[in-house]
UniProtKB/TrEMBL annotation:
<dbReference type="InterPro" id="IPR036188">
    <property type="entry name" value="FAD/NAD-bd_sf"/>
</dbReference>
<dbReference type="InterPro" id="IPR023753">
    <property type="entry name" value="FAD/NAD-binding_dom"/>
</dbReference>
<dbReference type="Pfam" id="PF07992">
    <property type="entry name" value="Pyr_redox_2"/>
</dbReference>
<feature type="domain" description="FAD/NAD(P)-binding">
    <location>
        <begin position="4"/>
        <end position="274"/>
    </location>
</feature>
<comment type="subunit">
    <text>Homodimer.</text>
</comment>
<keyword id="KW-0285">Flavoprotein</keyword>
<keyword id="KW-0560">Oxidoreductase</keyword>
<dbReference type="InterPro" id="IPR050097">
    <property type="entry name" value="Ferredoxin-NADP_redctase_2"/>
</dbReference>
<protein>
    <submittedName>
        <fullName>NAD(P)/FAD-dependent oxidoreductase</fullName>
    </submittedName>
</protein>
């Protein structure tokens, strides 16, 4: 049996960071990535010190180049279809879509999350003129007239408060949802436009938003903004491995990446079921890698 010390599922910022840390600790690591990381649609990644403005692909290529220096790290561009927990976490069997099997003492989930949008045409502009994170892209939209697409009071107010420091020319689009009187009053005090009509279509070219068409036929001219997605885990590994999950969908950990399932660790957006930044995900990956290495040390010394 070809046994790895740890299999890392996911090659985004969290997974690559964990791989680097464990590779430098001389652990035998296999990291699997199928290229579906959430930020692949983004033109530039921001807020990562020394890498501000880098493209997601360049970021990944730089990370993989660094991993190549460590001979105990194996990288596989492959999709994992099944993970089998053997003997209550004694070891794991990882199966891929091309029929291969790998074995590991420890398992780290870093598969990230994906977005869902109630308006399908958002996808045409997402990552280029419509974004989900003001910290990542608010600077680029500073002082511009923008839209916020959100369908819950709490999401509207959270996003409006965040973006208001970058631009106060804001139109809130709720896609058919009526906001509470309290929310409406707060927005009107700031001269924020509120449109509760259903959105028929978002119109533009090559990822650049030009205008919004409502069901009534009215047209609003806006060239960018923010949208609040619904997030989900693209795989069922958390459930299949019986990791405990809070009522809000967050995977329960000890604060250092260990889940409630023996020898299963988790890092990045996979754990939180919510968006975060590259630099925070990388820190989560390193922290979880510390836990993996610590546990291996304690078990083997």
């Amino acid at each position: 049996m070809n046994m790895f010390d740890c299999v890392i599922v996911g090659g985004g910022s969290a997974g690559l960071s964990a791989s680097l840390t464990l590779g430098r600790a001389r652990r035998k690591i296999a990291v699997f990535d199928d290229g579906t990381n959430r930020n692949r649609v983004t033109q530039q990644s921001h807020g990562y010190l020394t890498r501000d403005g880098i493209t997601p692909q360049a970021f990944k290529e730089t990370g993989l180049k660094e991993l190549n220096k460590y001979p105990s790290i194996s990288y596989f561009h492959s999709t994992i279809t099944e993970i089998i927990n053997k003997c209550s976490g004694e070891y794991f069997i990882v199966k891929t879509s091309d029929g291969q099997e790998f074995y590991a003492e420890k398992l780290m989930l870093a598969t990230g999350i994906q977005e869902e949008f109630s308006i399908p045409s958002v996808r045409e502009f997402y990552g280029q003129s419509l974004f989900s994170c003001p910290y990542c892209d608010g600077w680029e939209l500073r002082d511009q007239p923008i839209i916020i697409i959100a369908e819950k009071d709490e999401h509207v107010m959270h996003m409006v408060k965040l973006v208001y420091n970058w631009t106060n020319d804001v139109a809130v689009l709720t896609n058919g949802v009526e906001l509470s009187k309290e929310t409406v009053q707060k927005l009107q005090k700031r001269n924020i436009i509120i449109k509760s009509e259903y959105i028929k279509n978002l119109i533009g070219q090559n990822g650049d938003l030009k205008k919004i068409e409502f069901e009534s036929g009215e047209i609003m001219i806006r060239s960018g903004g923010f949208v609040v997605p619904t997030y989900y885990r693209p795989h069922q590994f958390v459930e299949q491995l019986a990791c405990q999950v809070d009522k809000d969908g967050t995977v329960v950990t000890d604060g250092a990446g260990r889940t409630t399932t023996r020898n299963v660790y988790i890092a990045g957006e996979t754990q939180k079921l919510g968006a975060t930044s590259l630099i925070i995900a990388a820190a989560d990956g390193q922290k979880a890698a510390f836990s993996v290495n610590h546990d291996l040390v304690m078990e083997r010394f």
